Structure formats: structure tokens, C-alpha cells
Amino acid sequence: MAEVGPFRRLLGHMGSHKSTIRLASVCSITNKIWDLAPPLLIGLAVDVVVLKEESFLASYGLVDPWHQLIFLSVLTFAIWGLESLFEYFYGILWRNLAQTVQHELRLDTFNHVQKQGMGWFDERQKGDILAILNDDINQLERFLDKGANDLLQVSTTVLVVGGVFLFISWEIALFAVLPIPIIIWGSFKYQRSLEPRYAEVRKSAGAMNALLENDLSGMSTIQSFTAEEREMKRVETLSNRYREANREAIRLSAAFTPLIRMAILCGFTATLLLGGWMTLDGTLAVGAYSVLVFMTQRLLWPLTRLGETFDLYQRAMASSTRVLDVLTSPTEVEQGDFSPDEQTIEQSSIVFSNVDFAYPGREPVFEKMNLELVQGETVGIVGSTGAGKTTLIRLLLRFAEPNNGLISWAGRKLQDWNLERLRSSMALVDQHITLFPTTILENIRYGNPNAEDGQVFEAAKLAEVVDFVEELPDKWSTLVGEGGHRLSGGQRQRLAIARAVLKDAPLLILDEATSAVDNETEAALQRSINKITQGRTAVIIAHRLSTVRNADRILVVENGGIREDGSHDELVQIGGTYSRMWAVQTGQSN
Ligand code: UTP
Ligand code: MG
Known about the structure:
Rossmann fold; six-stranded mixed sheet; binds uridine 5'-triphosphate; binds magnesium ion
């Protein structure tokens, strides 16, 4: 397949705005045509005062020079009025189009990013994605705001001026105007050599953004390790790379305007000499000569600005490539349309059969792993750190896919499920809790945006949230800060439990959900959890064995699979890993 250029790709995405683009283009071109009229008016006026009754206008029936001048004045007013009107129109159309396109592109891209699998995020840096969603889209906005109009108007100028020259004298046109389109074409090709340089600029901007984002979120770590100097150096290196990439581009693009100016100078001189000679010779009217001289002047300004416009264009294309690459990257998570009702889900078990899984480039986490999570049961999962407990949950949520084997729920493999249905059937308290920078109340309500206040408080009570919240000065309206950093670790965990309880899903998953609370709170939470897990399937992962002791079944994850499976008493009886862990935690062994 032929490589489609970024401009085409962008146009493809702007399909729904075709009519606006057309209208705006017509306004830009019309405005330019009126804008090019004054030299003609000047020419006509010169013609009137030099030739009087013999003038160009006189040949159309307006014999009296005074009448001719009045006619020209009225025409001038009309033309200036029209020019201004169309300038207003194209301004509004292009600028609003730029706003609409950046708005839609940002939403589309973000929407697409939200559909990506976790593997996609693992390969990228948050700051780089952020740069695409912000800077790159803004770069496109800047081009559409001004650049598209500039390109159209320059082309119109060259065509109209060329036409007028041809009409007046093809000999002068040959020397003065014909080289200009060729020079522009050549310069555009030359400017294309900027493409890879701007791609580099955008890439280094993304990398720098990623580092800054990382540093800002890890500021307390940086300061506690007094690593400010080191970080400063790293930022400096990347900032330098950005500057160098830009310098390369500037070196090329700065040569552009002087080049164009030289081209126009040739045209201007040719007109001056050749036209002047023909006028002296009597083959060219004085009026026509002045039209030509003023016209070449008219070329100068827009053409010298062309460098800037091409620059804007190339930058926009580099950005556009980045944005469209994200927008068209296939979403990794494929889904089916299996969407069973709540009751079916509640009465179904989850089965892992012969599941193999390894993270890319790593040792396998699971090999031929078999497991059944029986509906209605509370299952505790234990195992040493790094054994694969969280990975098991990621497989359930389809944040990762088995390499072999299958996982099924309600008799259908997870890939057949409608993804939203699947995930809305699980309430997860993650090992690494993310709270949103809003109030405590709203953070809990995140579990079910339609919940009444009463339901939110009920969930908060079950998660032992109420006591500590009542002691806060702003109570339920307390802002938790970015990521919830204004709360303690244990408080954050309890909010996350309340949020999951409020979601009220058929499968409840707690991954180290109570690891940060004290023993007393843990015991209280335990009672709540017993209540919540009544009649639903629950998976509770914990290092602290007291948390899972009362589970219907406890599984030990070890060496790529489930190595022990039974109730607390049974496992202690067997005398395997679990019993050793139990002995260590209860102080019977060391
Ligand atoms: P898990 O994250 O599943 O381990 O990682 P775990 O049992 O929950 O551990 P704790 O108790 O929370 O500490 C299982 C293995 O997968 C690797 C980890 O390094 C670990 O060896 N892993 C995890 C990856 O390679 N990539 C990841 O994105 C996550
Ligand atoms: Mg874990």
C-alpha cells in the first residue's frame, strides 16, 4: 500500500467539514482577488490622466475624464468594501474551523486512548501521550487558523498576477512571473527536507514532557534523595535535544525567505527594465506599465511570508502524524457481544483452564494454570511477592491476555464478552489505589455515579470510612488531592473499598485492600467484608493471612500455578507452604 501523506490523512479525518473548508476557501480566494484590484485601479487612473478621452475606460463609453475618475472612486469604495467583507468571512470560517477540528480531534484521540489495552500504555510514556493530546493538536490548530488561508491566498496571488501579466504583455510575463511558480514549487520541495527535522522536534518535545511529568509526580522522592541536581541535568539534556532539533530546522527554514526575495527581485527588475523599455518604445501604455510595477510589489509581501507558512505547515504535518498514529493505532482489546443478565452472572463460576501467561520478554508467570472460582464463594489468594496474584486479576479484567488456554465465565470465554459488561460485573480494589482529585463523597460515588447520597453513606459505613471522615474539618467535602495524597494510606484504601462496595458488582476483588490499615480497623473491615461478600463471588488477595482466614477456600499461588487449595484448617493440616506462612505470622516459627 502506498504511504499516504499526513496532509491527506488529516483531510480524511476532516471529511465532515468539507463544505466549511470549501466555503472558507472561496472566501479566502475572493478576498485576495479584491485585494489585488488596487494596482489595476491605479493603472486605470494613470491611464485616465495621461490619455484622457483616449483612455481604456473611454473605449467603454465613459468619455469625460472627470466621469471616469468618479467612476473609479466609486469602484474603489466598492472593492475595498467587498475585500473587507470577505476578510471577515474567511477569518470567522477558518478560525472557527480550527477550533472545531482541534476540539473534535482531541476528543476522538482521547476516546481512542481510553480504549487501548494496558499493553499499549506499558509501551508509552504518559507525558508523551499528554504532549500529543495537547501540543500536537494545538500545532494543527495554529496551522488551520492562519496557514491554510495563507497558502490559498499566495496561490491566488500568483495566478491572478500571472494572468494580468499575460494579458498585458506575454513577453514580460515570461521573464517576470513564470519563474515564480517554479521557484515556489522548488522551495516547497526544499522545505520538505524539514519534515524529518520537525518529526524529531515533536519527538523530543514528547520525551521532555514525559520526563517533566515523571519528575513532577515523583517530587517527594526526588527531594528525599536530594536528587534535584541529577534531575536538573536530565531535564537539561532533553531540553537541549529539543533545542538542537529546532536549531536544525531553523537553519534550513531561515534561508527560505531570502531565497524567495531574490526570486521576486528578479521578477521586479525584469518588469522594471523590460516594461520601461517597451513603454519608452511606445508598445506599452503608461497605465499598463504602472499596473505591472505595482503588481510585482503585491507579490512581494505574501511570498516572503510563505516561508513562515510552509514552516507552520511542516510543523503541523509532523504533529498531525503523531496524532493520527495514535488515532489509528488498532485498539488491542477485541470484544464480543456476549452480555448476559445480572442473574446469570451471579450464578456462574469463573474457570481458568490450562492458562499460560508471560509478560513480554519475561519468564512465564503461569504455566498450565487451572482454577475455578465457584459462584458465591469467597476465595482467598496468598503467595509470595511476585508470584502472580495481581496478574491473575489482570487476566480477569482483560488488562492482559493469556498466551494459551482460556478463561471463561458463564460458560463463555472472556474474549466473547462485551467488555463493558465484563468489567462492570467486577468491582476491584486495586493494589495501587487511584483516587481522583475531588471530594471524598465524589470519590466514593465514582463506583456508581447514579447512587443516592444515602447509598454512598451506607457503602462508606461498611468500609469503615465514616469515623475518620467525620473528624475532618470539611468532612465529606474534603478534597483528597492529586491521587489522594492528602489522606493516609489506610484512609485511601478504605475509600477505595467503599467505592467498590457502592459498585455492587457480582464479583468483588480485593487486592491487598487492607494492607495499610491497623489491626483493629482490619478486624472491623473483616466483619464488613463478610457481610458484603454474602451471596456474591469474592476474591481476596492478602499477605496478612488473618484477612483470608475465614474465606471458603484459600489458594496458594506459587511456581506458575495454584499449588494448594482448601480451607484454612485443611491447608494448615497439609503442612505445606500455607502452614509455614501461618506459622511464621502467628509467631510459632521464625
Ligand atoms: P504480580 O504483580 O502478579 O505479583 O507479578 P504479585 O503476586 O501480585 O506480587 P505482590 O504480592 O503484589 O508483590 C508477577 C510477576 O510478573 C512480573 C513481576 O515482576 C512478577 O515477577 N510483572 C508484573 C511484569 O513482568 N510486568 C508487569 O507489568 C507486572
Ligand atoms: Mg500484587
